[in-house]
């Protein structure tokens, strides 16, 4: 019997890379984990071959994966784009950085596309987390809470338009809208920090809505919008009344727990079809 080819997981922060690695290992396929220094937690992979690398040693990282027979890789977890000073590349890393080029200093999706291009050129196949872990991307449905009323639906429509504008310039994937007012947009700080700001900007009357969607033209292989229990808790603390995210394009972490938290908080949790909330269409 031929042994299964190992899967490489390039792990940032959060629970997603851990879930991917554990699920694949449980299926009997070997897993090798690259933990990105300053982002992922090496202690989360005690039973799996793993090694910590900083971005500046990316060439060594790829060589290590090849030494372990890895051909397919999954990029998973939260990663803040490093500053130039923090890279400290070695000679091989400098050559790899040159191949990535100016994308390293552009938006998040730009650098991801460049990194995936380099991986492909080096013989790796990039898989999306959803390709190896079933059930991550919910279809359109109301998963928890009351049906959004007309005001909430208007806020979702407004939020979708704002997210698309942000995504077109490769800035962020989320925003918060309350009664037609954009309270906050997501940039490099991430969703949790954005929601924390919203708590101080809350207006009287019906609460706002967190809206998250895929950037226009974004690759579906990495950095998809993500919702999880912490997102629900932060939304509740900020006084929001619901979370709306793009169906079939947003990762729902810890599905049962996330839905239960939304129900407990009285928030709606809506996976929506963008076509139903695009200006000029009727739902």
TrEMBL record:
Its EC number is 3.6.1.54. It comes from the Bacteria. Residues 141-269 form the LpxI C-terminal domain. Keywords: Hydrolase. Residues 7-135 form the LpxI N-terminal domain. Gene3D superfamilies: 3.40.140.80, 3.40.50.20. GO terms for molecular function: hydrolase activity. This is UDP-2,3-diacylglucosamine diphosphatase LpxI. It comes from Neoroseomonas eburnea. The gene is lpxI.
């Amino acid at each position: 019997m031929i042994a299964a080819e190992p899967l490489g997981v390039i792990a940032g922060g959060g629970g997603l890379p851990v879930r991917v690695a554990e699920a694949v290992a449980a299926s009997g396929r070997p897993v090798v984990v690259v933990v990105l220094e300053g982002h992922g937690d090496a202690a989360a992979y005690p039973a799996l071959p793993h090694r910590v690398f900083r971005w500046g040693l990316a060439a060594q990282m790829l060589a290590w994966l090849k030494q372990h027979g890895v051909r397919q890789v999954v990029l998973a977890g939260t990663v803040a784009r490093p500053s130039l000073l923090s890279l400290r590349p070695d000679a091989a890393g400098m050559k790899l950085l040159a191949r990535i080029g100016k994308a390293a200093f552009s938006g998040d999706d730009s650098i991801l596309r460049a990194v995936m291009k380099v991986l492909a050129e080096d013989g790796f196949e990039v898989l999306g987390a959803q390709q190896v872990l079933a059930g991550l991307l919910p279809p359109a449905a109301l998963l928890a809470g009351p049906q959004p009323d007309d005001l909430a639906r208007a806020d979702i429509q407004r939020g979708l338009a704002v997210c698309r504008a942000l995504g077109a310039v490769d800035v962020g994937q989320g925003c918060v809208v309350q009664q037609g007012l954009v309270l906050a947009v997501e940039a490099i700080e991430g969703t949790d920090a954005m929601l924390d700001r919203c708590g101080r900007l809350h207006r009287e009357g019906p609460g706002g809505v967190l809206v998250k969607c895929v950037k226009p033209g974004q690759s579906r292989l990495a950095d998809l919008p993500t919702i999880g229990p912490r997102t629900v808790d932060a939304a509740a603390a900020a006084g929001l009344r619901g979370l709306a995210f793009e169906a079939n394009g947003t990762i729902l972490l810890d599905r049962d727990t996330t839905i239960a938290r939304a129900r407990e908080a009285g928030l709606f949790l809506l996976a929506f079809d963008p076509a139903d909330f695009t200006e000029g269409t009727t739902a």
